[in-house]
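Researcher: Next entry: UDENN domain-containing protein (Friedmanniomyces endolithicus).
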Amino acid sequence: MATVLSARPNTNSTGTTNSTTSRTLSTQHHTLSSNSDSASAHSHAPYDHVPVQLPSHRHVSNSHINGNGIPSPMSRRRQRPIKSQYPANSTEKHVEYILVASFDIDRGSVMEHQYPGPVGGDEHMLAELMLPDQTHLRSQDWTIFFLHKDAAGEEDNEMKQRRRRRRRRRKKQGEDGQMKAGAEDREDVDGEDGPGEEDEIDGDNDNFDDSSDEETFDGPPLVYVLNLVNTKQDHTVKRGAVVKAMAVCTRHSFLHIYKPLLLLALEQYFANPVIETLAGLYNAVNAMDLSLMPRLNSYERFILQSSDAKDLFLEKFEAIIAQRMAGSNATPSNPALTAPSPTMNPSQRARYGLPRDTHELESVVPYAGIPIPVKVPTALLPETVGDFSLVKLITTFSTPHSTSPQPFTPTHPHLTTSGGLTHPIIVLLNALLTQKRIIFLGHNLPSSDVAEAVLGACALASGGVLRGFTRHAFPYTDLTKIDDLLKVPGFIAGVTNPAFAHKTEWWDLLCDLGTGRMRISNRVEAVSPIPEGVRFFQQPGHLPSASSSTAGSAAGTAVSGISALAAAGASLSAGLGGSGLMGTVISGDATGDVAFMAGVLRAIEERHGEGAVRRKFRRWVVKFTRLAAAFEEWVYGASMLVIAPTPSTTHPPPSPFIAEHTSPAPSTSSPKPTPNNASSPLSLPPEVLTHGYVFPTPQSKTNELAANATRIEGWRSTRSYYNFVQDTAASYPRRPVKSVDLQHLHDRLAKLRLTSEGSGAVYLAICGVVKGEREVEELLAVVGGGVWGADGGVQGEALQGAAGGGGVGGQGQGLFYLGFGLFHPKVEVREAVAGLLGRVRDHEAGRHFWVGVGRFVQGAWERVERAREARVRDAEEEAEAAAGG
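Model: Predicted structure:
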């Protein structure tokens, strides 16, 4: 278990420290204007501090104290304790059940033990899942499967705990009025928490964990089962071998950490086949200490997943250790307990419980007298189960396609969106998004291979954004369960029996892991009638531009475009023969899929790593959802996939310069009140209140939406679509910035050629709404996700390192486009951007982005800050002289 010793001194809850090795900072503070005074009571004013020299990444900034000496909301939040993802006093078990099954020559698969009690359900079916086909041919094999265990009793207990937490909070807050008592009674009846209520502390949802959304919408979490099968030769028994399997059942999706423990435990069970062996394993894994893993909110998880920096959010680990030390018997007076230091090497730092890499928490599980090290992921995105490899999945199907391409026959409008030679991985993505029945076949391969392929496919289409794949996935199944499998719409299953390949009515897409080829079933459901969204792009005024020949065309013949369907009088269902709607490629690669897969394969060849590949597919899924929202708004007039910006009087007030420059005569750069926000203190110009995906030109919008029309229409009737609608509505109350679409504004800076007036309005809008810590986190999540360009999503990579625009550890362009604001012609824009970058630099995650901007941008920031400091000082001297005169 992680050793807990004294933490770094002078560390607040996020770990900003007053290190003696930090460079000297200027601590001069000045009052800008009466406008900034009024703003300081509610938000972190961007111009309170004027550091002249570049700070080190660990320092104490006085920027969280306003002119009246009152800490800002950001500093007040940082004084609150950091929560643990797995508190030491939690009653939740890491592993709920341990199962043992064996194969009997007379009775077949038999369940020998279930500890600490029966799992429930059909024991024979569980035993068959634990002993896959042809397992006697291999000495060892791994399988994974999921259980949909009824958790009604557990939900009742959780509901009672929520009620007790609400009552304690309200008693502390003094909420004892009749109206609030009535509201509490209503909530007790419903058994539901409001948005962010369960995890709030005094109304602050800084550490809100929205991982409970899956339980809210889809029922209780799945029980993930990791199973190990061993075959030992024994000529004294029938068939000359003994086959046994041991499995652990857990609610945690990182079940792969139990592999070394299962290896030891199953060996012990072969030697001593008694239930006490299971009890020893059960007690050992549930004694694992993960209480030093801080809980991250959704933005922090995404930022951590988007970066390769090994000390990102290290301050949270330091703070949680300090909290543990505050309640322990250890004291700093003990000479053996020396405080952690930033200069410690990784091995020394690990002694104090600080991880070498914050992406995972290292712990130790003592079992059978052996300390077993385990590494638990700190931030897991939805639909991520186990230790699959997307690189392996992609190369399996990309290599045969690149060496000997074979067109898909038949084609399908939902699947072959770039014609018959659509890349197999894109076909798989389309099949997952449009809820087709998918089989991964691994004849003569270990069942672990097909299970990993299924899990990888779920993560591929989810991207950490969409849900509903793993709940309908079967990492391993066999012919005995085919009747139950066919009752599940849009299943993703892994099999090893070649009989599945001959039953085309059982599946829509077959992925053969042995040959690296995919097949579309000739019995796949046809798309008829033509969806309204497809017909929309056949109307005059919405026709995409046509290309007479395209590099990516399946047959290399001339094609006319999406309107060719109507001209030929064909139906969409006839597109199965390859002559239908999406058998064409508009303007070469209108979907961008060809360029995207080229970028993915280039990243694999250059060994960018598994994390970089996963980030690429996350960006692809994010782009797809934003395209779908734009599609619905254009075709149907509205979309449930996006919530438009809603300027509100409750939003943090603007920066001083926005307030100062709203009074002059109207111009394109001056904020103008609109009917929706006339009463808001943050009056934004109409051009920054737009939202959604940014298209470089109107024609590119038509082309791209037309090229994705059938794929989007196919997605609109699936589970993942409705789950995404629910997630969008549920996450909106917790979104820090509601008055503008930060992703949209950032994309406008990156993809459009704006005038100085237009770019100034965008910069001022971003600076005006990004004030506190949570707003900075949302901005970092936006810039960490990158910008999807016309080149298929590699725009950020091309810019990385250019003009100091490199991101942090694989995060693309990072603050590159925001840094351009330091060179804007208008002084108010330059100073507003400098204040914003100062807040980013002071943030525990933002400091990593700040280091990545390079000396060119950092030098420009210094110059702007010095000029602002001089201007404010001159204004104060003039005011003092006027008062003295």
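Model: Note for the record: The domain at 390-534 is CATH 3.40.50 (Rossmann fold).
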